[in-house]
Amino acid sequence: MSLYRKPKSLTGGGSPESSCVSMRSDRSMEPPPNFSSGDCCDADVRNTTDGSKDSIFQELEHKLISLMKKELKIFKSLLSPDYPSCSEREEEDDEDQIRVTEILKEQFQRMNEGMSAPGSSTLVNEIYTELYITEGGSEDINNEHEVRQIETASRRSQTQETQIKCNDIFKVSPEQTKPIRRVLTKGVAGIGKTVSVQKFILDWAEETTNQDLHLIFPLPFRELNLIKETNINECLLRLLPVIKASRTADLSYCNLTEESCSSLASVLRSNSSSLTELYLSFNKLQDSGVKLLSDGLKNTNCKLKTLNLSGCNLTEESCSSLASVLRSNSSSLTELNLSDNKLQDSGVKLLSDGLKNTNCKLKTLKLCNCSIGSEGCVALTSALRSNPSHLTQLDLNYNNPGDSGVKMLSDLMKDPHCQL
């Protein structure tokens, strides 16, 4: 949420001062849901997501852009010596601000509670519970749920926390001399951070509090992230002809997702593709993305020899998909980098099933920092003894093979058939 505070004067003012605010409710609630993506999402209470939401945001965006342009013109005219006390333009600005206020009121006055039925919503003012907000604290994420906080509250020194009201978070306390420009709210999912922002905006739109703020711009990070992801995938689609015609494509650190893998797999399946090296390190591809990518790697048209998937949030499931690629007689892969993924011993065991297959052409395998122990080393040693002629480089740095694992690998390298 971005805030624009009404200027009190044309001169003066100090530098910004930050304030950290932690929040917890004065009543208990169920723990937040555990989503399969692994990312905790504070969605115990969510905003309404009916069909009118998109149109509301589009209209709001148009009005805010128009209003901001006029605001900049006003500031420019304020510096002019012949600036009048009132003008028709100011009246138009007031009308635009009223329209923006009405849009915000319509958007934020209602909300859905928990797993309520689609289309049903409740007035925020009817169900809102005042939060227990404290000023101060570090910028570390608070991993305690409210119940635990209430249990330990009696043991904390009262001087550690200063309680403030939600609508006072931007007000300067007597001991502060600089205006507060930024406020950080922290707390576990479901504690009420999003709802408190919704209530703050609603109170401003209804002109009950926070009237020293001239404008409020709600910028929901969930929607922004979705737009960002969509734009990245729309961008990748435009690059596909270039990637298809190239021998090497480096798409590391590009915020690619599962949907991106589907597009890249189509390139690998194309009989006109010239791609032989693909670098995708440190993208959020996850196991589902690698599964899609593997379908392209097994295609007879695929010419890819080098694949870098380091730091892509992969687990043992990806090892299963890639093992099927290594077993495929149509695979051309000779170098595979899976470093910085939590494959663990279970994942290496699955990957080893592909390594020992006679169709495997892999020469370089990088498994740095993959949480591999002695059991993983047993599986690798067994696979390479079964098919020792192909692999020439194996990188196991930053793992924990133990003495037994090191001994097995050392004995393997003494084997005259081993090419490591």
Note the beta-strand portion: 5-15%
- The rough form would be described as elongated
Radius of gyration (CA) equals 29 Å
Determine the number of helices (DSSP H or I, runs of at least 4 residues): 12
Strand order of the largest sheet: 10-11-12-13-14-15
Query: What is the string of SSEs from the N terminus onward?
Result: EEEHHEEHEHEEHEHEHEHEHEHEHEH
Query: What proportion of the residues is helical, as a percent range?
Result: 40-55%
> How far apart, in Å, are the first and last alpha carbons?
56 Å
Mean pLDDT: 75
Protein name: FISNA domain-containing protein
GO molecular function: ATP binding
Organism: Triplophysa rosa (Cave loach)
Keywords: ATP-binding, Leucine-rich repeat, Nucleotide-binding, Repeat
Task: Write a structural description.
The chain is of the alpha/beta class and 420 residues long. The chain has 2 domains: 2-218, no CATH class; 225-414, Leucine-rich repeat, LRR (right-handed beta-alpha superhelix). Helix content is 41%, strand content 14%. It has helices at 52-78, 88-108, 124-127, 146-153, 193-205, 221-245, 258-269, 286-297, 316-327, 344-355, 374-386, 402-414; strands at 2-5, 17-25, 45-46, 110-113, 122-123, 131-135, 162-164, 180-186, 213-217, 248-250, 277-279, 306-308, 335-337, 364-366, 393-395. The strands form 4 sheets. The chain has a 6-stranded parallel β-sheet with strand order 10-11-12-13-14-15, with no helix packed on it. Strand 4 and strand 5 form a beta hairpin. It is elongated and about 85 Å long. The two termini are 56 Å apart. Residues 1-51 and 138-159 have low confidence and may be disordered.
